[in-house]
Amino acid sequence: MRNLKKIVGKVVSTSMDKTAVVEVESFYVHSLYRKVMKRARKHVAHDEHEVCRVGDTVQLKFAGRLSKKKRWAVVDMLRRQPQLGGESFPMSKLAGSTAAFPPMHPADFPHPQRPAEGAVPTPAPER
């Protein structure tokens, strides 16, 4: 059996059914400036069991022509991206609400060096 090409990349999108878009980075030396350059390429890969999430590092295997743009298949999950647990706070609650965050004025905060109104100032210690 022939040796099939395998590449490693990071998942950037999983919005399609059984498909993941994986970005593969490669490095090369520029021929004129002799500087190491980074080249990123996005591959559309087949994800049969829909296990990929955005941020995961996966290994792809060349699978031939699966559809118009799909040529790769997800073979292995190398590293999982940690996800935040729990339910995210809906930003719509913050948009028009003034009860959660009432308007504040600088005079509402006590000054660290100025005594509060009506308080008797303490005399400075003698040296």
Characterize the structure shown.
The protein is mostly beta strands. It has one helix and five strands; from the N terminus they run E-E-E-E-E-H. It has one helix at residues 92-95; strands at 6-13, 19-29, 36-46, 57-62, 70-79. The chain has a five-stranded mixed beta barrel with strand order 1-2-3-5-4. Strand 2 and strand 3 form a beta hairpin. The termini are far apart. The mean pLDDT is 81.
Please provide the ordered H/E string of secondary-structure elements. Answer: EEEEEH
Q: What structural category arises from helix and sheet content? A: mainly beta
Strand content: 35-45%
Residues in helices, as a percent range: under 10%
- Tell me, rounded to a whole number, the average pLDDT: 81
Strand order of the largest sheet: 1-2-3-5-4
Give a short summary of the structure.
The chain is mainly beta and 127 residues long. It has one helix and five strands, in the order E-E-E-E-E-H.
Question: Keywords for this structure?
Answer:
127 residues, five-stranded mixed β-barrel, 3% helix, elongated
Question: What layout of secondary structure does this protein have?
Answer:
Layout (H helix, E strand, L loop, with lengths): L5 E8 L5 E11 L6 E11 L10 E6 L7 E10 L12 H4 L32
Parallel strand pairs: 3-5
Antiparallel strand pairs: 1-2, 1-4, 2-3, 4-5
